[in-house]
Amino acid sequence: MSKLLERSTSWIVDLPLASGLLVIAISAVAIAGYVDPSWLKNLLFSPAAVVESNDLQERAIEAELPDVDRFSLGGDVILAVQSDQLFTSSGAAALRKVTDVLESTDYISRVVWMDRVPMLNIFGLPEPVFPHAAASPQQYAAAKQKALDHPFIGGQLLSSDGNTTLVMLSIDGLMVESDEDCIAGVKQIAETAAADHSDVQMKFSVTGWLPAYVTAMKSHNENQFQFMLIGYGVIAIMAVVLFRGIAAVMVVALAPALGVFWTLGFVNYFDFGHNPFNEVVLPVLVSLVGLTDGVHLLVQIRKLRSDGMPPKSAAKQGLKDVGLACALTSLTTAIGFGSLATANHEFVREFGMCCVVGVILSFVSVVTTIPLACSTWIGKFVNVGQEKSLVDQQLGRIGVVVEWVLAHKHVVSQIAIVATVVLIGISLTLRPDDRRSNALPTNSEPAKTIALLDREMGGIDSNSIVVDWDASIEPDSPRVLEFIAKIDALLATEPLIGHPLSIANLIEALPGAGKAADRMSMLELLPPPLKRAFYTPERRTATVTFRVQDLGIRKYSAVFERIETGVAALEEQYPGFTTEMTGDSIWRWRNLYEIVVDLATSLGVASLIIFAVLALVYRSFRIGLISIVPNCFPLAVAGTWLAVTGQSLEVVTVCAFTVCLGIAVDDTIHFLTRFLEERNRTDDDQEAIRRAFTGVGTALIMTTIVLVAGFSTVLLSDSRDHFIFASMGAITLTAALFADLVFLPALLARFVRR
User: Fold this and answer.
1) Secondary structure in 3-state letters for 224-238
2) According to the model, what pLDDT value does residue 50 have?
3) SS (H, E, C) 150-190
4) Of 119, 246, 391, 412, which one is least surrounded by beta carbons within 10 A?
């Protein structure tokens, strides 16, 4: 295989013009992908051949619905108001002043608060929550209890102690001048309005989907730009310090940079839209894999140049010495990530396909640009600073490590196997989870308000159970109300489910007595905006809403499963009824849980595939087994760190595992490939291990130091996801270096036989 690779890559140095044209051609295709990726589709498929298909499915004819503005408690922005004086004369006046000013603000199109909720009376008359300003404290106390008894206020807009209320705001996007209007702007308006009532102590905070989105995107963009500059700057400085030569740094940085550029350009042809993995994780993965292989190749070329070999010969020989290892790392990484394409979730499948493309393009970039650059006049300078390299100077000193390992190969190999198994066992205790606030900086306004409303309001994340019934059941049938009331009762049995709301609750709040099913006729007495919020007889549909806290999908997984089981049992008791659970929390429970499980499963499959490929390529089942330990140990260390620190399996953690697996495998393959090459030159296996240690140790240590330094800068980020990703990267890379320089030599010395 080595000879085949040599013959197939020698032209890269022998025919520099052809190599340059190849690089230019790939770059041109990538640039076209950035500019207009549709050109390829138009080239392959003639526009004339594209026939617009008519929708032949019969469309359901919906009944014309009454023109009623359905009442909704939702809003783009949630203003939380805290005060123990809400139900006092001065407190009510201050709250009215705040809401009046908010309603008069240009970019706020709708304000919903306690005094804007339609009252439940059979005459449909307006009835304010707060009594007149001169009312007695007893009257305000009665108003407070009446508000708590109102199904649209108690638990929805007012906490059970009456000290926290919500003001729901809808934003007119055309009138918003800046993103800060949705957070600091709303809060400042409220505080300024409340300042006119200095005798009332009010505290305001802001959350909601829009402030959360704005905060997350702002934090992401700021952190990404800031830490990209800092990280790349630190990497560049560390590379200059380690290589002690500007030319070497420029050459080694060229390959991963070009690989990322090519990859993102080619990915645009796939029309995958805004896949978060492709936008964030893919560039990191490609750049790290390219940097790892690039450092190994350049270090070998530098050594050959320092030995007096001409630039062109050194480039050609370096590609011959390291090219096989680079090819194997790309092959195993591509096959491993290709296993993601079998996942159930679309995002994960797309990510797997793009990883394969990225790894292949990264390999092409490494084996073309670095030898090509080193075979030119630049090659005369790549070895500048070689004699001053810190790693090379110190590598002889740490040679005692490999001597000690070889002398204690039995003990070290046993420790390696046992430690890996134990740490994997601890890592397997991790369970998938996801929280909305994970994407927000810990000390941000929306994150702190979410935690507040979890305590005071039972959560703000609204979800629904949509009830449908067939034509055999009349829309005003008592069975409809019975079925919905049973769902309400089922939800009420779950302590983590907050404040179910449906037409059953509204009818119960009306005057009178008797069973809810017997009072179905009173449904017509409800104000149309309220009734239509949960009940659409023309479509034979009703909705039951409920709230959940931001405790994570792991906490709610069993809860949702019990609700699904209970509702399914009700469907059996009431033939003709069907249900569907919807909402953001339900979506995250079904999809994000599936994404994490898909990624974790594919990660395990990738590990097995990598083992099989290495065993096949090296023609040794034994070496394939040996490779499992240094590949799995770093991931097990990172998993144990997550378990010990109380973390869970999330999208960001599994993506970090994915990236780190690719890097750990690269280092292991480079060591194994050099060991087998040296083994063919000597009859002493331990001497072959020493030579492999010396041959690849410089590149292993350099890549680890550079990448850990880059990851460490991101630890300063206020984003939880960035912190976890960076800490896992630093921990995994450090553990991988330890495994490759300590465990792998011991395992080879202990188990490899000729």
Assistant:
1) HHHHHHHHHHHHHHH
2) 38
3) CCCCECCCECCCCCEEEEEEEECHHHCCCHHHHCHHHHHHH
4) 246
**pTM, rounded to two decimals:** 0.73
**CATH of segment(s) 391-448+583-754:** 1.20.1640.10
d(CA 171, CA 110): 7
Who's near 710: CB < 8 A, 6+ residues apart?
231, 232, 234, 235, 238
pLDDT tens digits, 326-335: 888 888 778 7
CATH architecture of 1-44+244-388: Up-down Bundle (1.20)
Of 346, 262, 189, 336, the residue nearest 30 (C-alpha): 262
Q: Is the pLDDT score of 48 beyond 50?
A: no
Residue among 453, 483, 452 at smallest CA distance from 466 = 483
Closest CA relative to residue 109, chosen from 168, 167, 171, 166: 171
Q: What is the mean pLDDT of residues 113-125?
A: 72
Q: Rounded to an integer, what distance in angstroms lies between the CA atom of residue 302 and that of residue 374? A: 9
In this structure, which topology does domain 77-207 adopt according to CATH?
Answer: Alpha-Beta Plaits (3.30.70)
What token pair was written down for 287? 């750049």
CA-to-CA distance for 664 and 743, rounded, in angstroms?
13
Q: Which comes out higher in pLDDT, residue 477 or 386?
A: 477
Binned at pLDDT 50, 70 and 90, residue 53 comes out as very low
Distance of CA 298 to the CA centre of its chain: 34
The token pair at 730 is 């630093």
